[in-house]
Write a structure and sequence with these properties.
Blueprint (H helix, E strand, L loop, with lengths): L1 E8 L4 E4 L2 E4 L3 H11 L6 E11 L6 H13 L6 E5 L5 H11 E2 L4 E5 L12 H13 L4 E6 L2 E4 L4 E2 L8 E2 L7 E3 L3 E3 L10 E2 L9 E5 L6 H5 L8 E6 L10 H12 L3 E6 L12 H8 L3 E2 L5 H13 L4 H7 L2
Parallel strand pairs: 1-4, 1-5, 5-7, 7-8, 15-16, 16-17, 17-18
Antiparallel strand pairs: 2-3, 6-14, 8-9, 9-12, 10-11, 12-13
Helix pairs in contact: 2-3, 3-8
Bound molecules: asparagine.
Asparagine binds next to loops.
């Protein structure tokens, strides 16, 4: 099997510096030595290190495009793709790749680690080996693999800062769980031809509006500036926000009337938005806010960025969330 592994940055390949951990340009070579040392891994690995390695907290939509273009340029030369990435924004990147490589017929697996590979007590190789194993099993699609769990790329959420199990799949069963052997979940996706679309995604086109006790117009005004075309509203519970402040609701209505798509996602982290179950949620519906249902806020943010980048109209984008 020909497997392309891209090191984009992140803890997995970091080493200590005066300022704390930083990505190491020599990591790709160390990993190559590990993988090539084993006779059990009879694959052709090509391991690339990106010219600018980042802590993934610096990632922007441009980085999603860079990774996607890199994979696209090698699409016909490899059977499988593994993206080594920092955990902080890994769920955003895996969601972005899911949208950009819809119905992928090859494995594209994003992984990384909580502890760098240079440490003795590290999860680096167990995650890399799990990702390779998923490729060997011939899974098709974009996934985030971490601590034995193969999560659909657009369903992952970073849920823990320090557990080995850093990611959850709040509203969707994992595709597979790897212990000694794989335990497979169901794969209901009908096989359609792969669609690769890598739009230009403007930075700042999408924002996140937090709901919190005492939130005021002034808090959101700057976030809903003229550059913004989409927003994820992080609501309470089943999709509620204060409905006793007319100015706040007017701000949302004005934005949706000028074409900003505002998607309601619960800050609970799991479960679904039930738009309109409470009066406090109905006010959002009246203001033109659409329900994100059970999408994660990471995937909602990325989906808005992707669809806006493709040039879809507000109505088309709203429709895609239904
Ligand atoms: N700050 C790191 C990153 O996201 C965290 C990690 O990879 N575990 O790049």
């Amino acid at each position: 099997m020909k497997i392309y592994i891209a090191y984009t940055g992140g803890t997995i390949g970091m080493v200590p510096s005066d300022q704390g951990l930083v990505p190491d340009a020599a990591f790709a070579d160390h990993l190559a030595q590990h993988l090539n040392a084993s006779d059990e891994l009879a694959h052709d690995f090509v391991i690339a290190s990106y010219p600018t390695l980042i802590d993934s907290s610096n990632a922007t939509p441009k980085d999603w495009q860079t990774i996607a273009r890199d994979i696209e340029s090698k699409w016909h030369d490899f059977d499988a793709f593994i993206v080594l990435h920092g955990t902080d924004t890994m769920a955003y990147t895996s969601a972005a790749l899911s949208f950009m490589f819809a119905h992928s017929n090859k494995p594209i697996i994003v992984t990384g680690s909580q502890v760098p590979m240079y440490k003795v007590r590290t999860d680096a190789m167990i995650n890399v080996m799990g990702a390779i194993s998923a490729c060997e099993e011939g899974v098709q699609g974009v996934f985030l693999f971490f601590a034995g769990r193969l999560i659909e790329g657009d369903r992952a959420h970073k849920a823990h800062t320090s557990d080995w199990q850093a990611f959850s799949s709040p509203n969707c069963p994992e595709r597979g769980v790897l212990g000694i052997d794989w335990r497979w979940g169901s794969n209901e996706s009908a096989q359609k031809p792969v669609v690769i679309q890598i739009p230009e995604m403007e930075e700042g086109a999408v924002t996140i509006l937090p709901v919190f006790p005492g939130v005021q117009v002034a808090h959101w005004q700057g976030l809903l500036n003229d550059q913004v075309k989409g927003a994820v509203l992080l609501s309470y519970g089943a999709g509620n926000a204060p409905d006793k402040d007319p100015a706040l609701l007017a701000l949302l209505s004005t934005a949706t009337e000028r074409g900003v798509v505002i998607v309601n996602v619960s800050q609970c982290g799991a479960g679904s938005v039930a738009a309109g179950a409470y009066a406090a949620g109905s006010a959002l519906v009246k203001a033109g806010v659409v329900s994100g249902q059970d999408i994660t806020y990471e995937a909602a943010f990325v989906k808005l960025s992707f669809l806006i980048g493709l040039g879809l109209s507000s109505e088309e984008i709203k429709h895609s969330f239904v």
